[in-house]
Task: structure prediction
Amino acid sequence: MNEVWVVPTGTANLASVLAALTRAGAETRVATSPSELSRARAILLPGVGSFGAAMAKLEAEGFDEVIRAKIEEGIPALAICLGMQILFESSEESPGIRGLSILPGPLERFPDGVRVPHVGWNTVEPSNETRFLRRGDAYFTHSYRLIKSPNNAQAALTTYDAPFVSAVEYGNILACQFHPELSGPWGLDLLRQWIRQEEAPC
Amino acid sequence: MLKVRIIPCLDCHAGCVVKGIRFTNLRMMGDPAELAARYEAEGADELVILDISATIEARNHQVATIRAVRERISIPITAGGGIRSLADCEALLAAGADKVSINSAAHHDPDLIDAIANRFGTQCALVAIDARRSENNWRVLINGGGVETERSVAEWAREAAARGAGEILLTSWDRDGTRAGYDLELLRAVTSTINIPVIASGGAANANHLAEAVQAGAFGLLAASLFHDGDSTISKIKQELLSFSIPVRL
Result:
């Protein structure tokens, strides 16, 4: 099975995400309702925009509960950029707004004096061999980042002003601060690997 | 470590890549999707695709061009040229652009910068500034360089950043098409006054020019004719930059 359901996070570059998934061999479906998403066997949370706006949209349309339920169910979930950030508890971008809180920790803004957004290609360095993450250059564009990886998660680090967590593998979740859909052949390989795993019986 | 970005620019007219100095004496250079795929294979870090005719009919051509290019490549695309509204941005993003570049419209309606940043995110809002030297300062040009305004380039860059621009694409109109190198004084004046990334544009003819711009604070390097003419390839330029100890993606 290679059908990936994309959560409508209100993301601006949805077309790029869909084009890359298609190139990597997936059938893509954009969920129009929470009940549709509840039938998914693999989900993708894309995202560019703001933490607060994305959470408000998901909650208003009732997607937040389904995302939590699907991840708990154990189906493969890929989260990209803001999609990764909203899996966590909070972000300095939108004080007082609660994220999906599936993973622990706050997102923090790069310090003053650092040129933000952090835009461009930077090296992703997995701490050790993980299921999906390999060392390579990926495309980033973001102003907030995770500093401490959740316990028991496998992580990759990237250094801008200082190291930050650029990807997390935790159970069935693969969360990337970078954009695999914009990361050339390296990004397509990552997407292919991720799409292929869900073909295996769980 | 963050790599310096090499960004080929495709100037398009009626669905074709064209080339000319200051948008005159246009020569056809080929199909945008073909050229884009070639540049990605050579190591381009992202692409800027500008529609230089900026008419109503051009909007449809531009959307079709972006869609065709997006089907072929897996690197970021910035679309620009004649964008006047959120609806224009929406159409280009839906076709496969990741960012939009606004220029004259932002000058007439600076709130458009805030609107794009709020609706699509700061990372989506690239403000293009065309600059021309005027005594000891630089003034903002609009309408494809046709009109000089009273605005100072550094002040406008500060305002754009404060309103939510994620990057500035800074073109020296004095250097564009001259092959004399980027205007380094202009670059220093702008990169020292704002804290968002600046992409240098206008005048690059070799790797030395690119290296100088990085030293002057540029995070991205835009060039058109350098690559279109086959004078050099992106991979060759990147090797040369690496020999100057400038970090690039290989």
The mean pLDDT of chain B is 93. Chain B touches chain A at residues 1-5, 40, 45-46, 67, 70-71, 74-77, 93-98, 119-124, 166-167, 195-197, 219-220, 249 (CB under 8 Å).
